[in-house]
Design brief:
single chain, 948 residues, mainly alpha, five-stranded parallel beta sheet, two-stranded antiparallel ribbon, 64% helix, globular
Length: 948
Amino acid sequence: MSTPVISAREADVLALLGEHLSNAEIAARLFISVRTVESHVSSLLRKLEVPDRRALSRRAPRPTPAEQPPAEQPRRPAPALPAPLTAFVGRTRERGELAEAVTERRLVTAVGLGGVGKTRLALAVAARVAGDFADGVWFVDLVPVTDPGRVGAAVAAAVGVGEQPGRGIDDALVAALADRQALLVLDNCEQVRDGVAPFLERLLVACPGIRVLATSRARLMVPFEWVFPVPPLSRVGGGESEAVALFLERAAAVGRAPAPAERERIAALCERLDGMALAIELAAARWSTLGLDGLTAGLSDQLRILAGGPRADGRHRSVRAVLDWSHDLLEPQDRALLRRVSAFVAPFTAEAATEVAGFAPLEAAAVADGLGRLAEQSLLAVTPSEAGTRYQALETLRQYGTERLADAGELTDVRSRHLAWCLAGAAGLTGGGGSDWRARFDAVAEDLRAALAWAAGRPEQRADACRLALSMAELAFTRNLLGEAQQRYEQASLLAAEAGADADATAALRQAAGVAGCRRLGDDMYRLHRAAAEAARRAGDTAGAARDLAAAATAAYRFSSTFGRIPPVDEVTGLLAAARGLAGDDDPAAEAAVALAEAAVVADAFGAVQGAADNTAPDTVACAERAVELARRAGDPVARSAALDALSGAQSWAGETFAAAAAARARIDVLASAPTAPARTHELIDALAMAAATAVGAGELTAARRWGGELAGHPQLAELGDHATSWLLVADAFAGRADEVLAGSVRFLDAWEQAGRPRSFSLGPAAASVAMVHGLRGDHEARAAWLALTDRAGSKEDHRYGHGAVFDAMVLLHHGDAHAALARVAPEPEQVWKWVCWVWLHWYAALRAETAVLAGQADARDRIAAARPVVAGNPVATALVDRAEALLDGDLPRLLATAAAFEAADCRYQWARTLLLAGGEHTATGASALADLGLAPMAVRRPHPRRP
């Protein structure tokens, strides 16, 4: 057997699969798209002849002994760990003990005073033990997080987990980490301890392979916690102590190194500073200018002022003394700069500092030089980035600066300037342009959140707070932070209502409802539309209130599958009645909204879970057509798209497959003129899915693949690979594109499992289509696994009577079992109408004809005759019926004509199958085509020749 040829890029992907990275992580590591990774994975599965990515990971090359890192280093890199700019000094004992604790215990909290060196110790230990964790180490700095409720979001951002439909970011994170073996380092927990504690308690219960190393000034008070007190640096050994070693290393970095004879005096100084790492580093930063005598004299005076009290308090005072002393040594302008830049919670640029801090007595032109001087004195850290140099104060120094800001009476002024800078920055980001937009947003997001939190609590800043909340909502939506987008729109609504601006509050609530729709949170959509109606009433907008009440009623039926609690029918019909009463006759938009609600609630155009069973198809179609016409008159593209969705559903129920497909396609064209907004995005994603699904039903596989591809590549679905790829998988499966299906199935399965294995009308068919491809490949074990998944991802009834009957029949026919295939599609279409009418009707009717012919059924010709009017106009289903009749009649020329029809319809599998059924000289071509598609040889069973 020949050795498969693997390309260099495939080798890279295989190596990273061996590190158990996800497709998204591999894409980020190799700077390629997720779709490209999927293609490489599919190719590797085929070349190496293995069933899944787990088997691929076992085929990945292992490092040779020469490539293995030293024992004390991590066996694999920890890319999330920050790289400190200075060397780590000392703490040999603490590193060993803390490393042992982290590998043995679920949660270890390194507790110590500010400035004692907790962060550097945690980083050193994390790097040391990283190789013990198969999925590596993630580092999360909680300093920029000002809202305890956003701890989970900060961790998710570091880990690379996005939101999933129907669940919050915390739920998505827990699901993503459920089977990971990793170390999570949470730094500076004290300021959001109320958020950290419940988050960790839930995480550690749900994710048994996750261990946490936290740093905090106080214990977290959660189960599993093991506290590791971080002591000051050891002064044992005098001039040879760890504390002196740190002073010497930092002093040498800023100038001349102290002479050996000065070590004992330095030891005495470190003793006065209680071994506090920050205090020692700040003192060492002044060594080159003041010398040992200057340091000793200056610090002695300051320490004397703060003397007295318990030893622990004394240690804290030693840091405070060095901070006060370092501050007093600064020029007045640098003092002003140090306290004013404490407004920033994330790394900032010189330009940003100039806008916030550049006012008297500090000249704007002097800010950049001042930042350099503060960095030289270790009062600011310098952080290089692709966008230029950024500066950041350690949390202890930032808190000190804030105190000085208040003492100077500048707190409100500086916070206001920071708020203005944030408003301008948010405005500059609006629109989401540029390849670096995401990085630019991430760089300022925490400052925007901090400014909003400050402004929202001050009545005089309410208007600016509302503006910033709206900007943050829009930016978060663009960034795919849907949970925060909804939160900010709701916050903006509350701020507007407090200011008496009920019209603005209404608009914000409508936007929030649109975001909830994108999140597949039906309960929130319903609640927010009702809240918007109430706000509209307060604003005196009765027509607007009617629209919102009607929208709530429509959502209850149109998106019933996304509700945790489906509203009672009486409650919803009450909303519809109230909407009718408020709508009047002179507002086209309200009239259109009510008409759509009637189509949803009264006529059940969307086939809701709670829908009535006594509606006739013609009445439902008529009701939906009225909604479409009224929405057209109103001139609202989003409302018109929703009405067209109702019409498409009604036409499917009526068996009008092509009309349903046309209505679904029309939605995409209509939405092209709609302004960008969450509701439009929600509508477009749904429209793309419906266009792809109905195109499959009409046999338009090229169109289905086009719409399915657009859905798969939609940026809003970047984290929702199961929903994104669902209809592309189905279209590719019908076309016989096995490689594409296997590649897409990896993304589908990863996303579905991360999302908590949800159920949806589109997920079941997608999983079943993957099962069919495995069946056509002859991999019956993989097919069985995907069939089991199908029943968990969708409706068992849909699988039994609808899409499952179609896919199973195709697999059974491929393997020559025509009688089993016949049994799978035995019921008349009318008997299973509920499950086949939407997408599968044509395929079902055509396969009933083919199975009857190949099984030698006496009623085969009757089935062909019954199928013809049903499938007329569907290029693939018509060719299936034509092929069945040609086989029955033994008409070889007509049989070969169907092969050409399949090829023209982009259905290569059925083309190859037809050639094999034709036999003779066509067999080799058909067999070669199947092999090229990656499918198993077909068992050919032809019907008995027709008797004269």
